[in-house]
Amino acid sequence: MGYLSNTELTVDAILTKKGREKLAAGQGLNITQFALADDEIDYTLYEPAHPLGSAYYDAAIKNMPVLEANPDETQVMKYKLVTLPKNTTRIPVVEFGVPNISVNQKSGEVALSPTTSPAGNRSLGYTIVLSNKNAGDIVGEGVTSDVGSVPVFIGDDVSATAAIAKGLTFKFIPNPSLTSTIKTTITVYGNETGGSQTIPITVTYVQ
Amino acid sequence: MALIRDNRGALLASNISQYLAGAANTAGTPVDTNELVRIMNQFLGTGEQISSDLTTITNGIYKKFGAIDKVSNRTEIVTSGIWSGDLGSLAVNSTYTSSTQAASVSGKYYLDVYNDLTSNDGAEVQFSIAYGDSNGYGAPTLTQDDSSTLSTLATYNQYKNILLGSGDSAFSVYSGSTAGAADLTSFYVINVNRARYKEKLDPGNISILLSGTSSINLIDDSGGTDENVTTAGRVYNLVSGSLNIGVSTTATIANYSSPVNGQGYGLFYPDMGIILLNPAALQSKVDIKLAAATSSAANTYHINRGSNYGGVALLKALEGGADFQARRTENVSTSHYFVRANNREFNFSNNPTFVTGSTGQFVQPLFEKDPHVYITSVGLYNDANELLAVAKTSKPIEKSFDKEVAIKVKLDF
Fold first, then answer.
1. Which pLDDT score is estimated for B59?
2. What is the rounded CA–CA span in Å between residue B396 and residue A63?
3. CB of A27 within 8 Å of any CB in chain B?
4. Is the pTM of this model over 0.80?
5. Please, what sign has the CA dihedral across residues B21, B27, B33, B39?
6. CA separation (Å) from B223 to A41, A103, A172, A188, B28?
7. DSSP string across B365-408
8. Where does the pLDDT of residue A158 fall: very low under 50, low under 70, confident under 90, or very high at 90 and above?
9. What's the whole-number average pLDDT of chain B?
10. How confident is the model at residue B32 (pLDDT cuts 50, 70, 90)?
11. What is the pLDDT of residues B325-365, one digit of tens each?
12. Are B401 and A3 in contact (CB under 8 A)?
């Protein structure tokens, strides 16, 4: 008779900076939901041709030591696991539909309609993060403001320089008061599927 | 396990039967598992109830915790060693002091004791030694030194104000076998650094071995007396004895007072992180150099008198004993979250290596029929999807359509 494994799936959590802020402000944590992520996993290490057979296909993945948790909420939970139907053959891909955005400061607003292929994010919509809010403003439409939020928490450091909006469709309004050309990035996150895409955006200064 | 029988069991069966019959008679009405759970929960006690969320398959990247998935705001008592690195025993070294601090104004009041040479990285103050005297002995008088700050008198009165009630003018220790019958007119104080004891010291787990011309091991008498709570929290007498760690469940007290002069060894204030030592008792049992100051002289400070007297003698006695044991205790607020991912949930990943190309195609064709993902992180969120806490697993945990995962996440704060 052998011994049962005493490996227990019990893990210790640490508060993120945002969590500590909530406690310090006396607001309480009010944790209501969870998500799972696989940030460190490289699925190309899954080897169906492993010489020892199917039990070893994922040996390189499962034996990898995991790094400690980082309290910076912008650096963890980047790649979340998602629940999809069993017959799913493709991961929903969130896209802007354009490889980049290049406008000048007087071009007027640019319509942005992110899509999810093959489907998804129709009820909670998308969150768009413009890394440098000096480039312009982002306005979202189509979802109520209290429905969903950002799938990747936008840390205060980011928020200080970023413009954030959520919706089903968006308008990017270039900053008409620019005094120099700005190059930055714009990222769209699916609020349900968690996928994202980042593309470059350039707002050219014109006299 | 709940046992529902007799009339209650019959009533539960009747209610379920009635609901199922109603659903069957209404075309297009599926059986609502949440309603079934609600009916069941009417007959189950607190802590035995079924979470309707167990039957809910989440969609997307977040899953709500059910009512039974959270155990919040439990208080756990956590004990640990107080010294740097959570060590429980410190081998005091008399060279682990700061010559800069000792030579400064504060050196006339106390000596900081480190866990390493102060020139080394990682050296941290563990405790400080001070000397107080109600007569002002051990420091220059104003007659002897116009700039004297009467450091020993100030120290005595400082601790008196902190530790004693307003109507009490002196600290009292054992006299013979009578508690509180002898007053301390002077004391050495070991003041544990706040960062070391954090919330409070742990009574019944302190042991100070002092060694000079002879040796004595001091412990507190918390195991042998009723709890005495004063305005400064709990206070215990220091007695000679042994904790008997690993040998017996109770400590052994050898003497409540010094057999030589009949006075107690001192007092222990665990909630304040303060230990008072009676010079008169120590001089008779450890070393004559630990005797109290009996006069004042210019440029002479008992805490740092040199030649191994006074405070320096206490430091040497601690070094000679080489075993200062103490534990801290903290009340930690703990919440447990049970993260449950059933077989149909969280089987796909947004990890960029999970797909290939631009259309979301799986990197491994095998994943089309049998996707496998590997959990390394658990994030705890509020309703605004703000990440408030994060936990990492010790190794990647496999998840697939034929595997369920339950992870207990413990959050202390």
1. 62
2. 7
3. no
4. no
5. negative
6. 53, 78, 72, 64, 71
7. GGGGTS-EEEEEEEEEE-TT--EEEEEEEEEEEEEETT--EEEE
8. low
9. 88
10. low
11. 999 998 888 899 999 999 999 999 999 999 998 888 999 99
12. no
User: Which of B90, B129, B136, B91 lies closest to B310, judged by CA?
Assistant: B129
The predicted structure's pLDDT at residue A7: 47
What letter does residue B9 receive in the DSSP assignment?
A: H
Q: Please list every residue in chain A whose beta carbon sits closer than 8 Å to the beta carbon of residue B364.
A: 43, 46, 48
Contact A66 B376 (CB under 8 A): yes
- Complex ipTM: 0.82
Q: Which of B163, B165, B321 is nearest to B240 (CA)?
A: B321
What one-letter code names the amino acid at A152? V
Identify the band that residue B379 occupies on the pLDDT scale cut at 50, 70 and 90. very high
Neighboring chain A residues of B386 at a CB cutoff of 8 Å: 18, 73, 149, 153
Structural tokens at position A139: 């306005």
Per-residue pLDDT at B25? 66
pLDDT at residue B197, rounded to an integer: 92
pLDDT band at B56 (very low <50, low <70, confident <90, very high): very low
- DSSP labels for A113-155? --EEESS--SSS-EEEEES-GGGEEEEEESS-TTS---SS---
Task: Find, in chain A, the residue whose alpha carbon is nearest to that of B53.
Answer: A33
Whole-number Å distance between alpha carbons of B64 and B81: 39
Section B71-81 average pLDDT: 87
**Could you give the CA distance from residue B178 to residue B210 in angstroms, rounded to a whole number?**
24
Nearest to B353 among A18, A31, A44 (CB): A44
B326 near B206, Cβ under 8 Å? Answer: yes
The residue-averaged pLDDT of B89-107 equals 94
Is residue B138 within 8 Å of B152, Cβ to Cβ?
yes
The answer to whether B393 contacts A77, with C-beta atoms less than 8 Å apart, is no
Nearest CA in chain B to A46: B364
Residue B355 has its nearest CB partner, among A41, A84, A91, at A91
Closest residue of chain B to A196, computed from CA coordinates: B350
Peptide bond into A118 cis (omega under 30): yes
Chain B residue closest to A89 (CA)? B368
Q: Which of A41, A91, A149 sits opposite B384 (nearest CB)?
A: A149
Instruction: Tell me if B377 and A38 make a contact (CB, 8 A cut-off).
Output: yes
| Cβ neighbour number for residue A47 with a 10 Å cutoff | 15
SS3 content of chain B, % helix, strand, coil (to 5): 25, 35, 40
Among A53-62, A162-171, B241-250, B368-377, the least confident range: B241-250
